[in-house]
Design goal:
The complex is a heterotrimer of chains A (322), B (265) and C (284). Chain A is built from ten helices and ten strands. Chain A is an alpha/beta fold and 322 residues long. In chain A, the strands form two sheets. In chain A, strands 6-7-8-3-9-10 form a six-stranded mixed sheet, with helices on both faces. A four-stranded antiparallel sheet of chain A has the order 2-1-4-5, covered by helices on one side. In chain A, a hairpin with a 2-residue loop joins strand 4 and strand 5. Chain B has two domains: 231 residues, 3-Layer(aba) Sandwich (Rossmann fold); 31 residues, no CATH class. In chain B, 40% of the residues lie in helices and 25% in strands. In chain B, helix 6 links the parallel strand 7 and strand 8. By secondary structure, chain C is mainly alpha-helical. Helix content of chain C is 71%, strand content 0%. The chains are: A alpha/beta (322), B alpha/beta (265), C mainly alpha (284). Chains A and B meet through helix 6, helix 7, helix 8 and helix 9 of A and helix 6, helix 7, helix 8, helix 9 and helix 10 of B.
Chain lengths: 322, 265, 284
């Protein structure tokens, strides 16, 4: 396995397959993904692409009845084979998650202080005094004052609450932070604040960050590497900038073209016709073939290899840029 | 210049001590498309709800085709007349349709209310066709449809009344990018074909750029900047508009600077 | 451009069908209802035919479940008793549901002072014990099924109206209600065509549970000798009549109606709870 001198990846997903009862094909079909300590990796996709399932699998949060294959290593240890006790320890310690809607992820009747210290105190990692001190430190780190500890979630704005959630995620000093659309429920200007904060914290604590989003622009703006998912497979991976400027998978290109951009001309968008494949249909060949303008017979028959562009006919980068 | 189909002047609405909407005025030319941009708490949704009549204004006036629609509607005729002036498409396609009513029943119900005594079958097919839904969708219940399809049904329902103005309250915000593009294109086609005016409530500046001619930027219940969309987006005059524009993530984006600018404002 | 229609099956359909207890209870409810419907034909004897020579006899081919102290066939009385014992609660549930839904709908939809008046007055009924109210009305109106049914219906009304009100409050905030208002539909149309059908399953599930309680309350009243006229076969009345027989060591004619009452109440509760659970889980 890993040599001792090598740094263990915060997250190392290898060939993850996830099958749900009643589905004709795997919901996740051979997902490979790594997040090094201190690195930001974005996972981009539309709803139903499997991006949230992938990130949740890192915490062992699988839908009922799911069967899995492959491995999900967090800090070098396989989550899929862990027992309930070790999973609980993992979730309050080495891996943590920030959810999309901070209001839905917090008990409105408990004070912020209780919310922050609950996990570490229950697992006995820290005593009450230490836990309170750490909570105040982390609130300070996310730009909030210690007086918030005594407040209730209802007294905070969405942006403030999401910062509290981030502080809460950092309580157990995680090596891996999973952020599942953490800014989608926020205003555009508070989004920038939360993103800025995540960036600072990642540098300061050396946490690996897996950022799940539907927004390619956001993914490109904040991450080192981007993985684009479609129908349970990663279709394209690469450095954020390159992927944004010169997408090679037709799906990535189509997604970019369909996004209403600020620098675009007004008028019609290049919409992607059709819809993502239904889970009850088995797939032969490339999942995007039915919607792809470049698809040939081969695309409908044989699934393309995974790396780095899962496509039989990848687009050439714009030669003018090369 | 074309005559304004929707004229809003001096709209005010307070909830307790909070001025949700304060002195808001704008006008929408016939067949035009006006965007109202702002963050949560900017008063954009309250403004939209006053325009459609779901909320009452404390002061100010809403005129559609020169006719006032302030105060509560009295009587059936007034109610129907107002419905034919302004229709609305809501944000959440999962909640804005009655879960027990099929697509066809939704449309039939509306047509029966507004155009009684005529045969609606052809019109229903026409409406479904107009929003890009096949007749196969007619019998479906909302839970059998995807988010994009539901939003098409909601649009068809609003168009069934043949309104002069269509208010779209974050109508594409809940949709996936590829579906959102389909719906935005559909909306552009419909405007071209029917000449309905759009009042587009959104927080997404990319969407504003894509579908509106003019834009109004709201903050804390007031209008901070208004003008033709390209002008406002290319050369914003107000600091808040600039902040909004800079907040849109793109490669090379500096969230730290935006966060600082937000605190300064 | 035409979008492809996709049908998404709810995850609920993947869930295993039904629990054995629920199935048994459902079967029992069906059996009791069937017995009540077919009683006049199914009963082997006239329930009021007195055969004093056979009084307190045990089960025999002539009288499958024995004979009570007055010499009447227990099986026939049980079968015909099912009619009164189910009809009473049915009346209670029907009246309390219709009136309760009406009150709750108006209170929840209109809000304001009307809501305050309606809610406070139903709370007043809440504060008054239902049985006491029933005894009071029966003592004023005398014998007959109508008085106790009416009394219990009034006592049960607040449960239904309060539930309906809270459901309507949640439902009217849903955007689809706003959508219909914008379309020009009147409040009454929206309430009747959309709000009511959407909340109906929850209310009806609660009413099924109420049915069990009403059955028990009515049986209690007739055990006290209130309500049901002396000769009408009724389970509660049979328990009362059978008391003396128990003292003489012949418990069958009193124990059987007891068992039936308990089983029916439990069965209705289980079926109702299960229904309520399923409705609650079903999201749009």
């Amino acid at each position: 396995m890993n040599h001792p001198e090598e740094r263990v990846n915060a997250l190392d997903i290898r060939g993850l397959r996830l099958h749900l009862p009643g589905a004709a094909r795997p919901v996740l079909d051979g997902v490979d993904l790594t997040v090094a300590p201190g690195e930001t990796v974005a996972l981009v996709g539309e709803s139903g692409s499997g991006k949230s399932l992938t990130s949740r699998s890192a915490l062992g949060l699988l839908p009922p009845g799911a069967t899995t294959g492959g491995s999900v290593l967090v800090d070098g240890e396989d989550v899929l084979t862990m027992g309930p006790d070790r999973l609980r320890a993992l979730r309050t310690g080495r891996a943590a998650m920030v959810f999309q809607d901070p209001r839905a992820a917090v008990n409105p009747l408990r004070r912020i202080g209780d919310f922050l210290t609950e996990g570490v105190r229950r697992t006995g990692v820290l005593g009450k005094a230490d836990a309170d001190r750490r909570a105040a430190e982390l609130l300070d780190a996310v730009g909030l004052g210690p007086e918030l500890l005594r407040r209730y979630p209802g007294q905070l704005s969405g942006g403030m609450l999401q910062r509290v959630m981030i502080a809460g995620a950092l309580m157990g000093d995680p090596v891996l932070l999973l952020a599942d659309e953490p800014t989608t429920a926020l205003d555009v200007t508070s989004q920038a604040e939360v993103i800025a904060l995540l960036g600072q914290l990642r540098e300061r604590f050396g946490t690996g960050l897996l950022f799940v989003t539907h927004d390619l622009g956001l993914a490109a703006a904040i991450s080192d590497r981007v993985h684009v998912m479609y129908a349970g497979r990663i279709v394209e991976s690469g450095p954020a900038e390159a992927l944004f400027e010169r997408p090679r998978h037709p799906y990535t290109a189509a997604l970019l073209a369909a996004t209403p951009r600020l620098d675009a001309r007004p008028g019609r968008l290049a919409a992607i016709d059709g819809q993502p494949p239904d889970l009850r249909q088995d797939l032969t060949g490339c999942a995007f073939a039915a919607r792809c303008p470049y698809a040939t017979g081969l695309c409908h028959e044989e699934a393309p290899g995974p790396w780095p562009v899962a496509c039989h006919h990848p687009l050439e980068g714009n030669p003018a840029d090369d | 210049m074309t005559e304004a189909v929707l004229q809003v002047t001096g709209l005010c609405r307070a909830f307790g001590s909070v001025r949700a909407v304060h002195e808001v005025s704008f006008s929408l030319p016939a067949g035009g498309s006006l965007g109202i941009v702002g963050e949560s708490g900017s008063g954009k949704t309250t403004t939209a709800r006053i325009v459609v009549g779901l909320e009452q204004a404390d002061a100010g006036e809403v005129l559609v085709r020169g006719r006032a629609r302030t105060g509560r509607a009295r009587g059936r005729a007034e109610r129907l007349a107002r419905a034919r002036e302004v229709q609305m498409v809501f944000q959440d396609p999962y909640l804005s349709l009655d879960p027990r009513t099929s697509v066809e029943a939704v449309l039939r119900e509306t047509l029966r209310l507004h155009f009684p005594g005529t045969d609606h079958t052809t019109r229903i097919r026409e409406l479904l066709d107009q929003v890009g839904l096949g007749t196969r969708a007619a019998d479906a219940l909302p839970r059998q449809l995807s988010g994009g399809q539901r939003q098409r049904v909601a649009i068809a329902r609003a168009l069934a009344v043949e309104p002069a103005v269509l208010v779209l309250d974050e109508a594409v915000a809940a949709l996936d990018v590829s579906v959102q593009a389909q719906v935005l294109n559909l909306l552009a086609d419909i405007r071209e074909r029917t000449g309905v005016g759009y009042l587009f409530i959104t927080h997404d500046l990319g969407v504003v750029r894509c579908v509106t001619d003019e834009v109004v930027v709201m903050r804390h219940g007031r209008i901070v900047e208004a003008g033709p969309t390209t002008e406002v987006l290319d050369a914003p005059r107000h600091a808040y508009t600039r902040l909004l524009l800079e907040s849109v993530p793109r490669p090379g984006w500096d969230p730290d600077r935006i966060a600082a600018a937000r605190r300064a404002l | 451009m035409s979008a492809v229609l996709t049908r998404r099956p709810g995850l609920g359909r993947l869930r295993s069908a039904r629990a054995p207890l629920h199935l048994a209870c459902l079967g029992f409810v069906a059996l009791v209802v069937l017995a009540a419907l077919l009683a006049p034909w199914a009963a082997p004897d006239d329930p009021n035919a007195v055969d004093l020579g056979n009084a307190l006899a045990g089960p025999s081919p002539d009288h499958l479940l024995g004979v009570d102290a007055a010499g009447r066939d227990t099986l026939s009385r049980l079968l015909l008793g099912a009619r009164t014992s189910l009809l009473g609660p049915l009346g209670v549930v029907a009246f309390s549901t219709v009136a309760g839904v009406l009150v709750g709908l108006v209170a929840g939809w209109r809000g304001g002072w009307l809501d305050s008046v309606l809610s406070r007055s139903t709370e007043l009924v809440f504060a008054f014990p239902g049985m006491l109210l029933a005894i009071l009305i029966v003592s004023v109106y005398g014998e007959g099924l109508l008085a106790p049914v009416l009394a219990l219906a009034i006592a049960y009304l607040p449960y239904v109206s309060r539930l309906t009100r809270s459901l309507v409050l949640a439902e009217r905030e849903r955007p689809y209600v706003s959508a219909y208002r914008v379309q020009g539909h009147s409040a009454a149309q929206i309430c009747l065509r959309h709000v009511l059908p959407n909340i109906a399953p929850v209310v009806l599930a609660q009413s099924t549970i109420n049915f069990g309680y009403a059955l028990m309350d009515l049986a209690g009243l007739s055990f006290l000798g209130l309500g049901v006229p002396a000769l009408t076969p009724d389970w509660g009345r049979m328990v009362f009549d059978g008391q003396t027989a128990i003292q003489h060591g012949y418990p069958l004619s009193a124990v059987l109606p007891c068992v039936l009452i308990v089983l029916t109440v439990v069965a209705f509760n289980v079926v109702g709870e299960r229904w309520a659970d399923r409705v609650a889980r079903r999201t749009p």
